[in-house]
Amino acid sequence: MTGKSSLEVIHLSSYLVSVFGGNYTAAQLLGIPLKTFAAAFLSLSLLAALPGVATAAASDTKSKTAKAAKTSATPARKVRSVVLRKPVAAVPAVPTFGQVAGLHDVDDPLALKSSVAYVLDQNTNEVLFSKNPQAVLPIASITKLMTALVVVEAGLPMDEKLTVSDEDIDNEKFTRSRLAVGTTLTRGDMLHLALMASENRAAHALGRHYPGGLDAFVAAMNAKAQSLGMADTHYVEPTGLSSRNQSSAKDLAALVNVTSQIPLLRDLSTSRETRVALGKRLVQFHSTNGLLSSPLWDIGLQKTGFINEAGKCLVMQARMAGRQLIMVFLDSSGKASRIADAERMRKWLATQGEAVTVSTKL
Fold it and tell me: Which of 90, 94, 124, 153 keeps 20 to 30 A from 256, CA to CA?
């Protein structure tokens, strides 16, 4: 090795020592073949001459790491899960007393949906139509006609203020009411809502504010039924929510006959709507009988009723073909069936009247 070469090796070894941080002494480095030094020196020179290469490599590594982290941090795409629900079995309808008794199996010429129907000429007592007239069934809110009759005949002041209390809440069928506990109305307003809108709390409050209380009121209801010859009738409360309030079509015809002769009950029961002040609000109530809006009907008194055990019920006094008629429909199946039955009866009675007129002329 020449002196120049030896000098270069010494400089190279010193450089490498400075680079490797003293891990190797110059003497140790000098023991390594020159080609090895040259290769190391060349590598270091290239790295020094091309700093962007190392930076790019480091940057590329960092980018890949960040990308991997970002990929792992990105939430997985949502996958909709399909929940297979077990079909809910249909709840069988509660049969009415009439259905249990087989009253719907009785045929009639009009194919009525009501298991009980009864039409009476109020002036002559002639029975024009009869289907299961003596069947004793729950009568639902038809009860309120007797409630109203007892209140009116007791001569209680109609302007007296009555207040709805917790006792008037329905614990029988758990029905709702717009008359909140604490609502105060006159007896006349309570009577109006009970007859027109079939308000249960109003009817119960009327009975509770009777002299002697609710028990005395129910006793008066039953006493009145007996005085009218309603042998099939029994009441346990003034609303009709109890299925133990029961009667027959013949008995109810007697009740309609009496109540239809009281002007106040005629007016209140056939009222189509009214507004009542409940606190600071004027609340509108409507009749439960859509026939009152029909120009084909001239109704003097009416009352509807419904509980599961009774089915749909309807009683009316109406003028038709020059006659004052009393109609009773009990235990009708279907949402609008009692109205449809009444319409069938009206048309049938009209044809009967035409037949009578023709035979008279002949």
Answer: 94
The strand pair at 273-278 and 323-332 is best described as unpaired
Amino acid identity of residue 38, one-letter, is A
* Alpha-carbon 73 to chain mean position: 47
Q: What global pTM score does this model have?
A: 0.74
The pLDDT score that the predictor gives to residue 322 is 86
What CA–CA distance (Å, rounded) separates 321 from 315?
19
| pLDDT band at residue 20 under the 50/70/90 scheme | very low
Q: Which residues are catalytic?
A: 141, 144, 198
Provide the sign of the torsion angle of the four alpha carbons 343, 317, 224, 197, taken in this order: positive
Residue 66's contacts (CB-CB under 8 Å, 6 or more residues apart) are: none
- Amino acid found at 218: V
**pLDDT > 90 in the chain, percent:** 68
Of 296, 50, 278, the closest CA to residue 164 belongs to 278
DSSP string, 151-175: HHHTT--TT-EEE--GGGS-SSS--
Non-local CB neighbours of 347 within 8 Å, separated by 6+ positions: none
Which sign does the torsion angle of CA 179, 335, 273, 255 carry? negative
Contact 321, 354 (CB under 8 A): no
Kindly tell me the burial class for residue 233, based on how many C-beta atoms sit within 10 Å of its own C-beta (0-12, 13-18, 19 or more): buried
Q: Region 208-224: what's the mean pLDDT?
A: 98
Please state the length of the chain.
Answer: 362
Around Cβ 332, how many Cβ atoms within 10 Å? 28
CA distance 332 to 325: 20
Which own/partner pairs from 275-280 qualify as long-range (CB within 8 Å, at least 24 positions apart)?
276/185, 276/189, 276/193, 278/178, 278/179, 278/180, 278/183, 279/183
Confidence (pLDDT) at 93? 72
Q: Which two tokens stand for residue 208?
A: 């509770």
Tokens linked to 268: 């209140």
> pLDDT grade, residue 80 (50/70/90)?
low
